[in-house]
């Protein structure tokens, strides 16, 4: 069964101009997400996972530019080059953000305006994207708060963010994201700032809501535990590239890329009897001078000469599972002999 | 366990903060640590887990006397340090060190790596000459996996993981017996966390240092700790050997906390049964009179609301819960 692609990214590259030179943060990323699916994007800081999604939303910082590639929302291209100019693009994106695509951020306190009530802030995305009256918008806001499990929503509408706990604030953000039944929700480390018991509640909520509404969810995270318990499909990013993509089971049970394998070896599974942690030596590449070959080459214990020189192509293992590693090429050749 | 040397012994420790407002405002006290007792053995890692605001960092900092305890006693290496004078503190500090969470904030950006690591030796005047101290710096750099030629570089030239290695080298400079690790890996990337955890483990094996390991990442704490204490609202509610505590938590709060840990395995992780806790952490300004957990506990009775359960032994476990007291003998 082929579900409809709701968002696709083709060969996207993003650069940042900095004092030290150009940072090549995202280098040719291709991916898509389908209706009702929860997609995880896993990577360490600087891997390009957040930048990819911020550029999709048209929310890049001033010094960032999309150097190449295309983004499609359904069949509609939403890259700046598809519009007559910057102004038209901004205008179109304003209509899309908070409506067809919504975002959930890591820190609810910096996202919410401390001087406005929850009601005012929740009404805003509803009124901006519909022709509802204020009273109708209020009704919708209360319904949303109830949907995300906030007790006595009528009272909460009149409260300020500081009167709510961290978990409750994150629920408000989720309610705002849901306001216009978006096709895609992008969640950037939505539970990192929360305690484990609250994190569990918020993850359950995201899962439940995606099942109910059919919205696709893109979950950006570094936490493999979160990914395993929530996501259907996973992209592993490293050094501005997707090095492996697959279903949850393919990534966790049949990891192909040495980086994916390395990541899984350096976390502890408390259910598994204590195995030794095998850390990945070294640290991630400097994207001011991105490597010509595989970005993982300097930390890979299986690295060969070719790895330093050229980026490998993706090898396909199934309809869903792909990985970019030269080892697969040499395995293929051995198989052919 | 009885014959093992106790390095740290904390008894009935309380750390209260006065948060009264204004001159005539009502007296208000936050009981950040409230009547906590535990021991740490030589060469052992004691993990301390709990959610934000439970008092785990305050407890760690009170033990090394960054905060003054309100009541109770702290013994380190057989010496009661609860009421040491400032002049006596210096000698004590040599034995006890602290590793902080943020390796970006905890290193002075204007000092070279060599100076940073040498500073504690200069202050305490150990090793006769500067040359000997320099030699020791090089040795420490090797222990933590950095290169001798890093000595003249500045912190900004290093990544987060390398900076945490520098902090570790500095804490080792005085050969301490006991190190408080306050969330030492939570600011680091996943692939770097394992490097630091393994380094701390290696150092413990080689030097027999005891750690108090404070963290909110429960899977890493389980990996590194021999025993674990679970904190809630200023109290330790359960203490046990780390594997046993994870497999069969006794206290209802430990059960809920461990059930919430996301498991990095898609089949187990997606089918895991969670215990959803009702409500929020009560304000430490106005904690419940009885069991600290009674407002959210699914098993709370009238007794739990009025009386506070004490930490009592059940086998080789300690737990503070009336339900456990009633049910334990029956298994």
Which SSEs are present, and which pair or pack?
The complex is a heterodimer of chains A (337) and B (331).
Chain A: E1 5-18, E2 21-34, E3 38-42, H1 49-56, E4 64-73, E5 76-77, H2 86-96, E6 101-104, H3 108-111, H4 118-128, H5 134-147, H6 153-157, H7 166-178, E7 184-188, H8 196-213, E8 216-221, H9 224-230, E9 233-238, E10 241-247, H10 248-253, H11 258-265, H12 305-309, E11 314-316, E12 322-324, H13 326-336
Parallel strand pairs in A: 3-8, 3-9, 6-7, 7-8
Antiparallel strand pairs in A: 1-2, 1-4, 4-5, 9-10, 10-12, 11-12
Chain B: E1 6-18, E2 29-41, E3 45-49, H1 56-63, E4 71-76, E5 79-80, H2 86-93, E6 96-99, H3 113-124, H4 130-143, H5 160-172, E7 178-182, H6 190-207, E8 210-214, H7 218-224, E9 227-232, E10 235-241, H8 242-247, H9 252-259, H10 266-271, H11 302-306, E11 312-314, E12 317-319, H12 322-327
Parallel strand pairs in B: 3-8, 3-9, 6-7, 7-8
Antiparallel strand pairs in B: 1-2, 1-4, 4-5, 9-10, 10-12, 11-12
Helix pairs in contact in B: 3-4, 3-5, 4-5, 5-6
Structure commentary:
The complex is a heterodimer of chains A (337) and B (331). With 337 residues, chain A is an alpha/beta fold. Chain A is built from 13 helices and twelve strands. In chain A, strands 6-7-8-3-9-10-12-11 form an eight-stranded mixed β-sheet, with helices on both faces. In chain A, strands 2-1-4-5 form a four-stranded antiparallel β-sheet. In chain A, a hairpin with a 2-residue loop joins strand 1 (5-18) and strand 2. In chain A, helix 5 (134-147) crosses helix 7 (166-178). Chain B is of the alpha/beta class. Chain B has helices spanning 56-63, 86-93, 113-124, 130-143, 160-172, 190-207, 218-224, 242-247, 252-259, 266-271, 302-306, 322-327; strands at 6-18, 29-41, 45-49, 71-76, 79-80, 96-99, 178-182, 210-214, 227-232, 235-241, 312-314, 317-319. In chain B, the strands form two sheets. In chain B, strands 6-7-8-3-9-10-12-11 form an eight-stranded mixed β-sheet, sandwiched between helices. Chain B has a four-stranded antiparallel β-sheet with strand order 2-1-4-5. In chain B, helix 4 (130-143) crosses helix 5 and helix 5 (160-172) runs parallel beside helix 6. The longest helix of chain B has 18 residues, at 190-207. The model of chain B has no long low-confidence stretch (mean pLDDT 90). The chains are: A alpha/beta (337), B alpha/beta (331). The interface between A and B is large, with 47 and 42 residues.
């Amino acid at each position: 069964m082929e579900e409809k692609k709701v968002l696709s990214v083709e060969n996207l590259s993003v650069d940042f101009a900095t004092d030290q030179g150009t940072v090549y943060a995202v280098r040719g990323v291709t991916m898509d997400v389908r209706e009702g699916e929860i997609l995880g994007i896993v990577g360490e800081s600087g891997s390009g996972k957040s930048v990819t999604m911020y550029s999709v939303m048209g929310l890049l910082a001033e010094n960032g530019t999309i150097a190449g590639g295309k983004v499609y929302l359904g069949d509609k291209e939403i890259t700046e080059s598809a519009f007559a100019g910057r102004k038209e693009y901004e205008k179109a994106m304003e209509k899309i953000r908070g409506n067809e695509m919504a975002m959930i951020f890591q820190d609810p306190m910096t996202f919410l305006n401390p001087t406005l009530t929850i009601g005012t802030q929740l009404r805003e995305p509803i009124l901006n994207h519909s022709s509802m009256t204020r009273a109708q918008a209020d009704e919708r806001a209360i319904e949303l708060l109830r949907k995300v499990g906030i007790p006595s929503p009528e009272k909460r509408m009149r409260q300020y963010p500081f009167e709510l706990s961290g978990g409750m604030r994150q629920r408000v953000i989720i309610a705002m994201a849901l306001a216009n039944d978006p096709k895609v929700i992008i969640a950037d480390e939505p539970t990192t700032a929360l305690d484990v018991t609250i994190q569990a509640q918020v993850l359950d909520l995201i899962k439940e809501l995606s099942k109910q509404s059919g919205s696709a969810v893109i979950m950006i995270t570094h936490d493999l535990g979160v990914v395993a318990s929530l996501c259907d499909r996973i992209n592993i990013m490293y050094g501005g590239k997707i090095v492996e993509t697959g279903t949850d089971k393919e990534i966790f049970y049949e990891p192909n890329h040495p980086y994916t394998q390395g990541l899984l070896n350096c976390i502890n599974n408390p259910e598994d009897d204590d195995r030794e942690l095998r850390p990945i030596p070294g640290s991630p590449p400097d994207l001011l001078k991105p490597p010509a070959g595989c970005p993982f080459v300097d930390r890979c214990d299986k690295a060969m000469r070719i790895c330093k020189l050229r980026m490998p192509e993706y090898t396909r293992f199934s309809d869903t599972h792909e990985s970019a590693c030269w080892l697969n090429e040499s395995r293929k050749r051995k198989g052919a002999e | 366990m009885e014959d093992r040397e106790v390095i740290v012994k904390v008894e009935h420790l309380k750390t209260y903060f006065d948060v009264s407002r204004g001159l005539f405002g009502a007296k208000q006290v936050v009981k950040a640590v409230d009547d906590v007792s535990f021991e740490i053995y030589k060469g052992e890692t004691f993990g301390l887990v709990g959610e934000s605001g439970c008092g785990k960092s305050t407890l760690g900092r009170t033990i090394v006397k960054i905060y003054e305890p309100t009541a109770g006693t702290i013994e380190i290496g057989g010496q009661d340090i609860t009421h040491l004078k400032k002049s006596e503190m210096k000698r004590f500090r040599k034995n006890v060190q602290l590793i902080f969470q943020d390796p970006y904030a905890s290193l002075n950006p204007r000092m070279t790596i060599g100076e940073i690591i040498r500073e504690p030796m200069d202050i305490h005047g150990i090793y006769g000459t500067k040359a000997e101290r320099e030699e020791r710096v090089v040795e420490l750099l090797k222990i933590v996996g950095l290169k001798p030629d890093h000595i003249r570089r500045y912190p900004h030239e290093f990544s987060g993981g390398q900076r945490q290695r520098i902090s570790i080298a500095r804490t080792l400079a005085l050969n301490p017996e006991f190190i408080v690790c306050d969330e030492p890996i939570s600011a680091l990337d996943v692939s770097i966390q394992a490097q630091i955890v393994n380094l701390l483990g290696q150092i413990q094996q080689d030097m027999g240092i005891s750690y108090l390991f404070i963290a909110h990442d429960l899977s890493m704490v389980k990996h590194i700790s021999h025993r674990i204490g679970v904190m809630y609202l200023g109290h330790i509610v359960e203490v046990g050997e780390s594997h046993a505590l994870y497999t069969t938590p006794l206290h209802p709060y430990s059960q809920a906390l461990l059930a919430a840990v996301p498991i990095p395995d898609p089949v187990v992780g997606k089918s895991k049964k969670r215990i959803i806790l009702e409500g929020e952490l009560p304000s430490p300004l106005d904690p419940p009179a009885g069991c600290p957990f009674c407002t959210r506990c699914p098993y709370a009775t009238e007794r739990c609301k009025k009386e506070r359960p004490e930490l009592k032994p059940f086998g080789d476990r300690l737990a503070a819960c009336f339900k456990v007291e009633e049910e334990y003998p029956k298994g």
